[in-house]
Task: structure prediction
Amino acid sequence: MKKLYLISVMLFLMACQNATQETQMNEETLYRPLLHFTPKAHWMNDPNGMFYFNGKYHLYFQYYPGASVWGPMHWGHASSEDLVHWEEHPVALYPDEMGYIFSGSAVVDHQNTSGFGKEGVTPIVAIFTHHDMDKEIAEKIDVETQSIAYSLDEGMTWTKYEGNPVIKNPNIRDFRDPKVFWDETRKQWVLILAAQQKVMLYTSPNLKDWTYSADFGEDVGHHGGVWECPDLFPLPVNQGEKQKWVMLVSINPGGPNGGSATQYFIGDFDGEKFTLDEEFAAQLKDDNNYWVDFGRDNYAGVTWQNKTLENGNKLFIGWMSNWQYAKVVPTEKWRSAMTIARELALQHNEKGYRLFSSPVKDIEQSIAEEISLNDRSLSKALTSIYKNEEGLGALRFSFALDLEENQSFEFQLKNSAGDHLDLGLDATNNYFYVDRTASGKIDFEKEFGTRVSIAPRLGNEKTLQGEIILDKTSVELFWDGGRTVLTDIFFPQQAYTEIVVKGGENVQFKQGVIARLK
Ligand code: FRU
Result:
């Protein structure tokens, strides 16, 4: 009897294991993105410590190697030569007696200001938040402090500084996510971190001794949730000689479509404090709606520390999820991906300043095949423009549409299970949208599939330019040359196999290319 019982328990456990293996295999083919970085296994959130050195872009990330849910935070590590193909490396930073390793940044200390460099080796210095869980549980205030670690092998292995923390807690409960940059004009390091409903700035000659210099933000911008993961960097205005400083601040919750999102401010930085540009301050008063991405799945994004493109623009990557449901999205082996790496540019016109985003150019090297839609007019109400029975996989769909006055249109991605993801322009209300209410699995969280993400159309050109990056479970929409961006994730029950245009009677593709990406 006992033997029989044991056998049935074993059979049951084997069946469970097979079921898990099967789900994980399905998950791999159905949901693992082709172009976006995902960890091989387990939980990931914010991008951290991004620096560029010896031809390689390094990306660290909030990582829990023990499970596919958030836990004791480590820094995972990956690197890439083109920001598209990523190689994952061993865990870079482990939690210790001072706490979990929360978000932060890394710098290349070329002049060895820190003194960590030995025998001519350039040190890479990481600056991160130590989050003390014991203090959190004991409901103490001084839970978070800032610490540093250095690497003498291009970011592969790290030694924590014995003098940690380098910034003690000034009696502020949320005090985290330091982003550091070298201020060439003043020959100093500058650190920006998030402190509840504001950011705080510090300066240092050597990355070890920090002096507080200023606060920003208590009375501007959005305050629907805690401020997190700030960034501060200059960008050329309209690609010209003039520069302005851009500050990114993530907030959670309080995003334009619910949950987490990243807002931005335009201003000036004098080496100590950030001042809002007067014109931008007026823009904010008029319409407080300045988001790096209006979608629901781009959070905690920051820029690559020491890499400025030839045109002066910066490279950015964000976490492609939302705290509202990140922990329950239907993948078990790993959880979440990064956005596609993007180029950030600053434009100014008669309406003021706007931050523009576009996918990195390197994506073009992954093009396997191109289908042209040039000059195709969509004469029917429903026109199929692309089909692939094996699944759409990863695609870049770029187009220019000639629109008539008040002309709405919609692209629909669909499969034979009846799932569809709808996206397009609602011309009556002048907004773009992504509707994932019938996109597939949606019931793992109450709001995931019950509301439509919307974003204002900020341009009014007759020709609408669009670029869509699709990768199995995500769409990133760059409208009007990147003026309005929307990123949303979704989980179809079967791969989408077709793209149709709905309501397209008068829609004319001036230009259109669907590129299949490897
Ligand atoms: C943002 C964040 C950061 C923190 C980290 C913890 O998503 O909450 O503020 O450092 O995640 O994993």
User: Anything to note?
Assistant: Helices lie at 2-31, 133-137, 278-286.
